[in-house]
Amino acid sequence: MGHVVIIGAGQGGLQAAMSLRQEGHAGPITLIGAEPGLPYQRPPLSKAYLKSGEADKLTLRPESFFAAKEITLRSGTRVDAIDRAAQVVRIGDQALAYDHLILATGTRNLVPPIPGIERAIGLRTLDDARALRAALDRPARVAVIGGGFIGLEFAAVATGLGHQVALAEAAPRLMSRAVSPAMSELFRAKHEELGTRLHLGQAVTGVSDRGVTLADGTELPADLVLLAAGVRPNTELAAAAGLGVDNGVVVDASLRTADPHIFALGDCCAFPDPASGQRIRLESVQAATDHARAIARVITTGQSRPYAAVPWFWSDQADWKLQIAGLALPGDEAIASGHHTVLRFRDGRLSAVETINDAKTHMTARRLLAEATRPPRDMLERSNYDLTAV
Question: Model's pTM, two decimal places?
């Protein structure tokens, strides 16, 4: 079956290795990770880990697992180049041959060109989380740059620990790329109730040892500054190898690049959305693990099948769990159903559902969105937009 090399040992890369074995791949598998140590979960870094500091609970699989499954884990290792003609990845002076290569290189923090931004701490790795947790051991004034999932999750933890938190977001509303205006407004009220001072529509123009400065001249005093202004995909290896890159490594419907021996998954890949046909890139653990399972099936069966899983996302902020099923485009209509549910529609059919603390509606939405024909708005209107009544 040949040697499968996976570059990137996050949850997507690890899932690819596990799924290959589950699907019957008997050939060698090498999993290469830039960070030292065993693969670990990233989502808890901005939430549970900051409270508990229990790093051991983040580990996805023990060291014994890799020996049992005959998966070679090379942690603390960076790949220097991909030689497509020779079908090898180059690590220093070593050339590691592959029959199939999976790129699971993920993302890194987007660092805006702001004077003094090097004073801010990001939150992408366990080392970042350790530094933040240490800083939160004493009373602090905290400034957060960015009102997306990570910034808001961190703000909720910090206020819960008794710190003074101010958050600056350049967009006019919170989580503007991910949720509807109605859902943004619910979370604005929630975070203000928690004690976070929000500065919306205000870009940060400077960071100093005194805090941050906003576009309107407002100064936010801070002992600690978190940078959570978005991420960019790690596509340099792919681009240097001559693969297509467009806000991610470009792949087809089966998650294969233009090179038939190379696939890409997760945050680093741009793939065709089965619902809209547009090329998209999803920053989601669930998408990465779903991609991994799909690629493993293609490699083991030799049959290319279009990837068609319904995307879904979540974010835990204080005692609210935001869950999103489906993927809405900016122009999709939004209709509130009840106090904490928003339904999105495109061309008269359901495109996404946003909920707070409502697992039943979320799971129903995922089932409905997976159907070949998504529910039309007029049918849902007859049930007063109650998905559980459909």
Answer: 0.94
